[in-house]
Structure formats: C-alpha cells, structure tokens
Design goal:
about 40% helix; 9-stranded mixed β-sheet; TIM Barrel; Enolase-like, domain 1; about 375 residues; 15 strands; alpha/beta
Length: about 375
C-alpha cells in the first residue's frame, strides 16, 4: 500500500491518554487523526495491530468503503477507522490545496465557530469553591458559556440511597457555587454522564432550575427503553428554559436515528472520534437538522480532535457552540505542529490547508511502548 500508518499516545494527565493516528502517503503528504477513547494502553495496542492487519487500499480512498459505522460494537476498532478517515481527508484536502472545511462543505464561507468551556477535567480538587474558581478563569478568558460535570461517583443504582442523595446534594452545591461566581448572564451547562435514574432526573430539575441551568446533558442511560422517559424529561426541561442534550458516544446513523427521528433531545452531540467517519458525522448532522434537532459536537479531547471538530462545526454551520476542554493541560498547545487558534468564546479555523494542524512526533510515544 502507498501509505504508512503509525499510532502514537501521550499521557496528557494522570487520567487522560491521548491517542493519535499518523498516515503518510508515498508522495510525502502526512495526515493526522485522533482516537482518544479511554481504554487501557495494552488493549489499544492489541487492537491497533489487528487494525493494521486488515487495512486495504480502499480504506485510503475518499470514495472507498467506510468501516467505522459497521463496527459500532467494537469501539476501539471503530475509533481507529474513524481516525484513519480524519487523516485521509486531511491528506486529500492538502493535495487539493483546500481547507478541510471546503472538502466537507464545498463553497462554505464560515471561518469561525463559537465555543463553550468545559471546565470539568481541569478541576482537580472537587470542592464547590474549586469549581467556582475555574469557572471564573473561563469567564476571564472570554467564554460566555461554561459546562461542568458535578455528580462524581453517582450511579443509577445509587440513586435513592443515602449515599446517592449525598452525592446528588454535593453536585447541586457545586452547580450553585459556579452560578454564584459567574453571575446571572453566563450560560451554565451541566453534564450528568448518564448517572441518574428516572426519579432522580426529574428531581434534579428543581435545583437545576434554581441555578438557572440552560443545558441538561445525558441524564439517563441512552437505550431504546429510555426514549420514552427522556421525551417526557425533555418537555419538562424545556418548560424550565433548559435544552436536553445527548448522544455523544453513538456511531453511524443507525444508532442516532431513533433519538433524532423521535426528537428525544433538543441537541445531539456527535463526536468526531466516534461517529464513524467524516462523511458519517456530516450525514448525521444534516439529518438531525432536517428533523429540527440542533447539533453541537462533543469535543473533550486532544488538539487533532479539536482541529477536526472546528472544521466539521464550521461546515455544518448551524450556529451551535463547540465544546472545548478548558485548561486541562498545557500539552494541548505544546505538541501541536502549527498554531491552534485562540480559544475564547469564538475560534477561527487553523491556518493552512487540510486540517491545518499536525503533531510534533518527538513529543509522542509509539502506542505499543
């Protein structure tokens, strides 16, 4: 094959392992993709070896087969094919002297994207005061919307128990501390990471409303059985001025379809690393918008995912903000080969053709190490 494929990893923080795919064509062009997914390094390495063994020439063709959506039950393998697709699109855009956004949406003139700050991973000491302090830093940096995930250790099984009630109360106090710190004007978004049962999801509406939360994300596990409860919850949330959001882990239209066609959420959150490929995420986004469902990409990862997501968000051009992981680690900029646009309440697209951002290989380690 006229392409070389390598996988790299970087322990960005004690909890975060960034994973990247580098594709180099025999004519010297190099593209990058990201498959950060939260699995142990040994399992990622073994799956990468399997992935290399089944690559064919058509996997590098823009019009070739796309295997990411077909592997939705094999999450690492699907993420690798999705990262490969990012890198292949990057290379083809470079060869055509075009930005990635123009390859995704020819003629698109949108050159900037609004952002919101996800402060969660940058809050190490998890007191309400620590959340509030980080939120103030994001406000000072120019963001006008902040997201937090305050319900550490809560699970649907714990909801209703004494332990669960204490964890829920702790989360509510963190939310109110942030609201008190940032004032009434900023948008406050809360990610629940599927930690609630139905009763708790309803109960949470009370303190979320009291803290003027505008965005209620992933309150319940996302299955066929929870579509009905989520629809009821969306109606109640909307009555209180909140959008309901979710679907960040889905791959391919088949998984998104029942949630989009039933308008379960106000906003879906496809992730450039998991959605199945560049065409797939654009297809999901466009289908959602036709059904009156907004699209705001899930984007809590490294610099390649961020750069790719900027282009996708610009191409979709539906006015929704893109997630940005605020101040998780300075490595975000230090490993980039190229300048990542300033991240405030709005970001331009990277300069140059293709994705516009590569990585400094010397700062990374091979995945198999």
């Amino acid at each position: 094959m006229p392409y070389a494929v390598k996988a790299f990893a970087l322990q960005a923080t004690p909890k975060t392992l960034w994973c990247f795919l580098q594709v180099t064509a025999d004519d010297g062009y190099t593209g990058w993709g990201e498959f950060t997914i939260g699995y142990p390094r040994v399992e990622l390495s073994a799956t990468f070896s399997q992935f290399l063994g089944q690559l064919t020439a058509s996997d590098f063709d823009l019009d070739g087969r796309r295997r990411g959506p077909q592997l939705m039950d094999q999450r690492i393998l699907s993420a690798l094919y999705t990262a490969l697709d990012q890198a292949v699109f990057d290379i083809h855009a470079q060869k055509q002297n075009r930005k990635l956004v123009d390859l995704l949406a020819p003629g698109c003139r949108n050159d900037s994207v609004s952002l919101y700050a996800n402060i969660n991973r940058s809050v190490i000491q998890r007191s309400p005061e620590a959340f509030a302090a980080r939120a103030l830093e994001a406000k000072a940096a120019g963001f006008d919307a902040i997201k937090m995930a305050p319900f550490d250790d809560l699970t649907p099984e714990l909801c209703g128990s004494d332990v669960g009630r204490r964890l829920l109360d702790t989360g509510a106090r963190r939310i109110q501390a942030v609201r008190d710190a940032i004032g009434p004007e900023m948008s406050l978004m809360v990610d629940c990471h599927w930690r609630f049962d139905e009763e708790t999801a309803d109960q949470a509406l009370g303190f979320l409303t009291a803290s003027s939360v505008s965005w209620y994300e992933c309150p319940l596990p996302e299955t066929a059985d929870t579509i009905g409860p989520l629809l009821k919850l969306r109606s109640k949330a909307n009555d209180r001025g909140m959008r309901l959001a979710g679907c960040e882990k889905f791959t391919g239209w088949t998984q998104f379809q029942p949630f989009v066609e039933n308008q379960v959420y106000d906003v879906i959150m496809p992730d450039a690393k998991y959605a199945g490929g560049m065409r797939e995420i654009m297809d999901v986004g466009r289908r959602a918008m036709k059904h009156g469902v907004a699209v705001s990409l899930h984007n809590p990862s490294g610099p390649i995912s961020h750069a790719v997501s900027l282009h996708i968000a610009a191409a979709l051009d539906n006015g929704m903000p893109l997630e940005f992981q605020f101040n998780e680690t300075p490595l975000f900029d230090q490993i980039a080969d190229g300048v990542i646009p300033a991240r405030t309440g709005r970001s331009g697209l990277p300069d140059g053709v293709g994705t516009g951002i590569g990585l400094l290989e010397a700062r990374l380690s091979p995945l198999a190490e």
